[in-house]
Structures are given as structure tokens and as C-alpha cells.
Write a structure and sequence with these properties.
Chain A is mostly helical and 220 residues long. Chain A has 6 helices and no strands. Chain B has one domain: Rossmann fold. Helix content of chain B is 45%, strand content 18%. Chain B has a 5-stranded parallel beta sheet with strand order 2-1-3-4-5, with helices on both faces. The chains are: A mainly alpha (220), B alpha/beta (127).
């Protein structure tokens, strides 16, 4: 059958009776199904069904690995913050003690070399505070950059869900385009959608391996 | 601003919960708990006192809009400030959040300054 075999649209514009519309949709579906079979697209559909779970697994892998990487970075940032805070506290304590010593040197104690060393040390402690602040700002930026995991993860979840829907639709199409004898077998074992509790049931599949086995049993 | 306020951070991504928690700490808010979705958050809110909620929208079990709806419907929770932090930048979502009673709305990715501004603004309104 080809599309030229289909009833032609009436020349006069106007609403078709509901029964006619239903009839024509049915005929179009039959034409499409036959064409798919004749062109061997049923095999292509089966191949697409096989490939989609693999694509979903790969996307899930990306989400998991990037998530783990982001967590590692956050762990490192937390540790670095702790080290930085501790350094800052110790430096601040030493700075205060050296300031007292510097006052003593300024009053005439110690030689020129001693005064110079005290001044340089106090200057270093003062700079250390601003360096620590700069480091904290950089650590915050590193931490904020890890939000990519949330943003890309949400996109990946949507694509995985889309792939799941597509797989379901392809499976349905595959069943509908199968030869009559195989279709009866497929319909008897057809996926019924998500099953919350498969305990005690043998009419549903509960994992991808069972889907693969079902397709294989049907010669796909 | 009072730093002893107790925050509840609701997000299904642990990375984002940690980021928000650390940012709040940097802003002086050291008291924060985390929930993975709206259902867990609602249970925590019903059993323990919190002063501020920072919630994602897209989450399993109960999303942020549903959580917000429950919060606004319960007498003991309805005045609780809820800041929505989400990747959803669609106008309809922002409008829906506002109509549902969200105290503020931040689109990811965001900066520390933005979080600070929104939190402070909400806290000022509460006073």
C-alpha cells in the first residue's frame, strides 16, 4: 500500500464527520505501519530501543562522576578554609606579641638590625591578613563554580527522562508494526509502564535486562 | 543582623546544599540544616523550629512550589520566610512563586552578594 491508495481529501472545505476522521487516521496508521515494515524500519526501531538505555546509562554516569568531582572540590575547599583560618589565627596572635616587642625596640631597646627585623616581621603579619582574605575570596569562587553540577545535572535528568519516554514510544511502535503472530506474543508480554511493586507478578519486567531479554526473545 | 537564626536548606543536589550552607556561614549564619526534598523539609519544619527556608523548586517527591503551598497553608508555618533558589528562569515560574507566597526568588547560578542581598531584604521586612 502507498499513500496514493488513501482516500483523497474532499475538495470542498469543511469539517469532516468524526467517523470519517477516525477512519482516515486508522488508514494512515495502517499505511505507516506497513511502510515501516516494508522498509525494514522495524529493525531500526529495535536498534534504537537497544541504544537508548546505553545513552541513558552514559548520561547517568556523567552526572555521577561530575557530582563526585564537585564534592571532592568542596571537601578540598572546606579543608583549605580550615587551614587558612588556623594560619590567620596564629599569625594574629604572633602579630600582637611582636607589636609589644616593636614598642620596646622603638623605646631604644635592641640594635638597628633587631629593629629592622621586628618592623619587617610586623609588616609581614599585617599583609598576611589581607592575603588570607584574598585566599578566602578565591576559595569562595571555587566553591561557587561547583554549582555546575546542579545546573548540568538538572539538564541531564531531563534528557534521561526524555530518552525513557522515547524508548517507551518506540517499543509501542515496534509492537504495532510487528507481524501479527509476533505482535500477539509481544502484546501479551508488553510493558505496562512503571511498576511500583512487582513482587509476585510475572507479567511485568523490573529491569533493563528483562526488557533486553524480551526483545531478544522476539528476534530483535 | 541576628546570626543565631536557624536556616533550612532544601535541594535535591548535595553540591548545592553545601554551597548554600557555606555561603550562609560566610554571611554570618552558622545554624543551618539540610533536606533533600520538600517532603523531608516539611516533616522537619513540623517537628522542629526554623526561622528561614531556602528552597529549590525542581525536586522529587515534593517540589518547591508544593512545599511553599503547605507552608503557607499551615498556621504554625505560614509566616516563615521562604527564599526560592532555582535554575528555573521562566517568567511563569517566577510569577507562580510570587503568587504562592515566596518571600524571594534567586535564579542559579547566583553570587554570594545576591544571596546576601535577598536574605537581608527578607529579614528587614520581617522586623
Amino acid at each position: 500500500m502507498n499513500l496514493n491508495d488513501m482516500p483523497q481529501t474532499p475538495a470542498a472545505a469543511g469539517a469532516l464527520p468524526a467517523e470519517d476522521v477516525h477512519q482516515r487516521i486508522g488508514q494512515l496508521t495502517r499505511t505507516l505501519h506497513n511502510a515501516l515494515r516494508e522498509l525494514g524500519y522495524d529493525r531500526a526501531l529495535a536498534q534504537a530501543c537497544d541504544n537508548l538505555p546505553d545513552a541513558r546509562d552514559r548520561l547517568s554516569y556523567i552526572a555521577r562522576v561530575t557530582g563526585e568531582a564537585a564534592e571532592k572540590v568542596l571537601d578540598a575547599v572546606d579543608s583549605a578554609r580550615g587551614v587558612q583560618d588556623e594560619l590567620n589565627r596564629e599569625a594574629d596572635s604572633l602579630r600582637q606579641r611582636w607589636s609589644i616587642l616593636a614598642a620596646s625596640f622603638a623605646a631604644g631597646g635592641g640594635g638597628p638590625a633587631g629593629r629592622e627585623l621586628v618592623d619587617e616581621t610586623c609588616g609581614f603579619f599585617e599583609r598576611l591578613g589581607s592575603h588570607a582574605s584574598a585566599t578566602q575570596r578565591l576559595l569562595t569562587e571555587i566553591m561557587m563554580a561547583q554549582d555546575f553540577h546542579d545546573l548540568t545535572g538538572q539538564v541531564i535528568r531531563k534528557v534521561v527522562a526524555l530518552a525513557g519516554d522515547l524508548e517507551e514510544q518506540l517499543l509501542k511502535l515496534l509492537i504495532e508494526t510487528a507481524p501479527t503472530d509476533q505482535r500477539q506474543k509481544m502484546e501479551a508480554e508488553r510493558l505496562q509502564g512503571p511498576v511500583v511493586n512487582a513482587t509476585g507478578r510475572d507479567d511485568v519486567v523490573t529491569n533493563q535486562a528483562q526488557v533486553d531479554d524480551l526483545l531478544a526473545s522476539l528476534g530483535f | 543582623m541576628s546570626s543565631d537564626l536557624r536556616f533550612l536548606i532544601v535541594d535535591d543536589f548535595s553540591t548545592m546544599r553545601r554551597i548554600v550552607r557555606n555561603l550562609l556561614k560566610e554571611l554570618g549564619f552558622h545554624n543551618a540544616e539540610e533536606a533533600e526534598d520538600g517532603a523531608i523539609a516539611l516533616n522537619m519544619l513540623r517537628t522542629s523550629k526554623f526561622d528561614f527556608v531556602v528552597s529549590d523548586i525542581n525536586m522529587p517527591n515534593m517540589n518547591g512550589f508544593e512545599l511553599l503551598k503547605h507552608i503557607r497553608a499551615e498556621e504554625s508555618l505560614k509566616r516563615l520566610p521562604v527564599l526560592m533558589v532555582t535554575a528555573e528562569a521562566k517568567k511563569e515560574d517566577i510569577v507562580l512563586a510570587a503568587q504562592s507566597g515566596a518571600s524571594g526568588y534567586i535564579v542559579k547560578p547566583f553570587t554570594k552578594a545576591t544571596l546576601d542581598e535577598k536574605v537581608q531584604k527578607i529579614l528587614q521586612k520581617m522586623q
